[in-house]
Amino acid sequence: MPFAIHRHIVSRCTLAAAALAASPIAQAEAPVPQAGKGGSVTSGKDGEIVVTTTAQKRFENIQSVPLPVQVVTPAQLELQGVHHFQELDRVMPSLVVRPAEHPVNTNVSIRGVGTFAYAVAVESSVAVTVDGAPVAFLARANTDLPDVAQIEVLRGPQSTLYGKAASAGLIKIMTVQPTDDLHIRANARLTRDHEFAETLSITGPLTDRLGYVFSGGYTHWDGNVTNLVTGKHVGGHDTLSSRAKLRWKVNPALTFTLSGNYLTGSTSVGRPFVHMAPEARLRGVDSERADVVLPGVRVGPTNRAVTYNSPAGTTYHGGGGLLRTDVALGKITLLGLTSVDRFRLDNFLDFDDTASTAPTGYVVERGTFHSQLFTQELRLLSPDDAPFRYALGLYYADAAFERPATRGPGFALSDYHFTAGSRQIAGFGQIDWAFAPRLTATVGGRLQNERVAYTFTDRLAARRHPAATTSWAGAASDDAATYRLGLDYRATPDLMLFASYATGYKGQAYDLSTGFDQARADAGPIRPERSRDKEIGIRSQWLDRHLTANLTFFNTHYRDMQAQTIEFLPGGTYINRMTNVGRLLTRGIEIETAARPGGAVTLTANAAYLRAHYLSFPGAPCYPLQSPALGCTGNPLRQDLSGERVPQAPSWRLNASADCSPALGHDRRGVMQIAWQYQSAMQFAARDPELFQRGYHIVNVDLGVRDRQHSWQAVAFLNNVFDQQHYTALVNVANNFGRHSATEALLPRDFRRYGGIRVGVDF
Asked: Strand runs (DSSP E) across 459-528, as ranges?
């Protein structure tokens, strides 16, 4: 975001330190490492550090962009111990990532709004792009970050420029691009808790017209949970990723960049029980006590042990390609992005989460996710410095998903196969007109048509009832329009004020998951999700640009938000289903500051204050063990959450960092860094007392040495210095334990204090 320009920062704290501090350091969608147009950090006049972003699909100084956008660099990610997609919320206060037992169920929310869905055909409210091309679904992005050049997070509805799956925001991941000179970067990381990671990136020219990139990374981590049945660690992962790019400058007016990527890996799952009532029995069977089904486990808040007698985790692999075409038509630029992607993920879960072998308690889930995606985008861009600027575009996408899965034999039986597809055609545009001195108006709009289709076969029902209808198919089409209006005023070269109004849209979808039946087929797709966002912001720099302070005030109203719910039926049974929340309001303040009080010290601080409430949600599902006295009534059972705080939306999230590189002599410098994160208390599900996460803070410290040019470094680090225990997710499974309290947790990477070393070369 905002910490963009600092004068004279090269004096004692180096350019790299400035990059770490400048939280908003941004690049174009085709960034170049370290130097040149689009680089992470470039030197301007008088030693300024100039930061650019492509939030509006063109190069712009981030202090001139009337949008709430935060950008982080690889150096910032390293300082906060962020090496995986699901850890990004450590450096972005308005972002919360809630992982699940397998990546498909990961929930990403911005300003308290996201989509948690078991149905693959339901897209997230937060979109993700890599080098400008969208990913098919979040599981495709939920992996390591080995070759990142920088990451931008655009907060609030971004549907006008970025499409139907960005009704709450957008995460833009940009990877390393070809350079005109040979550049090699290699890093390795080793920790005391058995994590090893290495990355390599080589960029350079083949000829004066051909440039290339090769990057790869491998990570292994045992995990921080022990399976007492096998004696092995779980909760970790293995990931091998690679990417190659070739840039061909045909002539000064035409450039092609072709890239390909391949990813393969595996995860292991462990959800320890952190609370269980003494009278709890698996499936209510008297003999299935905790000491029987969880032998050796000491249930409690710090428990890191499970007893799985079936494998639990995922394996995945996939790859894709992207062709970028840049054509200069005089002063106008034509940009084309063509992408293809295929991905497969196999999941295998010990669904009962115990060592039970009883016929009524032993359950295993097996399934596969397939995805295919093709996209084509064309953009026409006016000159960046023109008083009348425009970005016009056409977009086409074709996505297909397939999901076969089985579960059994003890309970929660299922055996189904479904396919889902979507096709989207859209036209979009935005005009920025400096119609008066210091005053610029923005008008943008998008028109789109989307068709969704599905097939679903309940193979279990087909075996039980051969004469019944057990297969369904359907399709639906929808037209939609979104728009954005804005006005910004440049009071001084270092002070800008802006106001905007934007709408968001996420298309209709079918609820394809366990329990699909004739009633769901007859109901058709879930209604589209729509949002309206109002924002006022200030972008400012002070004290000869040694201090940056940016504020954004937002108020966003959502209608028909798509949400995963649990519907409880008489007798204690339940089904998972999707529904539309009536109305939801999220509002708050976001603050980003950066200061350089002395020649060797750079300070940053970011904060987000959020109030997110349901305005209308009268038919919300009850939580397990909720009684009529606590508001759970009706048939089927339900509660009214109108006026209640939205889950996974803490009131406060803050982070801060301090960095210094003092001279040590002999052309060497010290590395002294400290980072702090804070999150206030929040609920993982509305009103459920079992799913309450207390507030916590995390401190990370780095100490090391490097050379003056940053061509090598060696750093020792300690993460979660004060050993603060916290969870990334809590799950209430009381219904599996005779309706007595039973709660599981997913543990974050830094659930306990850990340390290690990292070394790197960069030349």
From this structure: 471-492, 495-506
Instruction: Tell me the β-bridge partners of 42.
Output: 50
Nearest to 375 by CA among 322, 324, 339: 339
As given in the structure block, the two tokens for residue 487 are 């006005």
Number of residues written out for the chain: 763
Q: Quick one: tokens of 711? A: 């061509």
Model pLDDT for residues 579-618, shown as the tens digit of each residue: 788 899 999 999 999 888 876 788 889 999 999 999 998 8
CA distance 280 to 287: 11
C-alpha atoms less than 13 angstroms from C-alpha of 683 in its C-beta half-sphere: 13
- C-alpha span between 553 and 311 (Å, rounded): 47
- Reading the block at residue 521, the tokens are 């087929």
* Alpha-carbon distance values, 47 to 6, 8, 60 (Å): 8, 5, 19
CA angle 670–50–604, rounded 5-degree value: 50
Pairing type for strands 169-175 and 148-155 reads: antiparallel
Phi and psi for 750 in degrees, rounded to 5? -105, 35
CB-based burial, 214-235: b 16+ in 10 Å, e otherwise: bbbbbbebbbbbbbebeeebbb
β-bridge partners, 637:
568
Percentages helix, strand, coil for the chain (3-state, rounded to 5) are: 10, 55, 35
Alpha helices per DSSP H over 170-260? none
**Element housing 523 (H / E):** helix 518-523
Sign of CA dihedral 142, 145, 147, 148: positive
389: tokens are 């600027």
> Per the confidence metrics, is the pTM higher than 0.70?
yes
Tokens representing residue 546 in the block: 């040694």
C-alpha dihedral (721, 653, 272, 647), degrees to nearest 10: 170
Q: Which ranges of 535-574 does DSSP label H, i.e. alpha helix?
A: none
- The tens digit of pLDDT for each residue in 744-762 reads 999 999 999 999 999 999 8
State the amino acid at position 170 in one-letter form: L
- How does residue 37 score in pLDDT terms, banded at 50, 70 and 90? very low
Sort strands 305-306 and 225-227 into parallel, antiparallel or unpaired.
parallel
**What is the DSSP code string of 695-761?**
-EEEEEEEEEEEETTSSEEEEEEEESTT-----SEEEE-GGGTTTS-EEEEEPPTTSS-EEEEEEEE
Phi, psi for 231 (deg, rounded to 5): 75, 10
Contact 192, 716 (CB under 8 A): no
Instruction: Report d(CA 342, CA 357) in Å as an integer.
Output: 38
Q: Are 375 and 337 in contact (CB under 8 A)?
A: yes
CA atoms of 698 and 411, how far apart (whole Å): 40
DSSP-derived secondary structure for 205-228? ESSSSEEEEEEEEEEEE--SEEET
Cα–Cα dist 508/557, whole Å: 18
Beta-strand pair 742-746/169-175:
unpaired
Residue 563 tokens, joined: 């949400």
> CA–CA separation, 5 vs 622, rounded Å?
50
Per residue in 335-379, pLDDT (tens digit) is 999 999 999 999 999 999 999 999 888 999 999 999 999 999 999
**DSSP reduced 3-state for 161:** helix
Q: What is the Cα–Cα distance from 482 to 462, expressed in whole angstroms?
A: 43
The encoded tokens of residue 363 equal 């359950």
The 3-state DSSP class for residue 45 equals: helix
Q: How far is CA 733 from CA 100, 276, 408, 415, 609, in A?
A: 14, 10, 17, 22, 31
Rounded Cα distance, 379 and 161, in Å: 11
Q: 542 — alpha (psi -120 to 50), left (phi > 0) or beta? A: beta
* Among 169, 85, 173, 130, residue whose Cα is nearest residue 340: 130
Q: Which two tokens stand for residue 275?
A: 């609370």
Q: Which residues contact 641 (CB under 8 A, 6 or more apart)?
A: 614, 617, 618, 620, 686, 687
> Cis before residue 409, ω within 30 degrees of 0?
yes
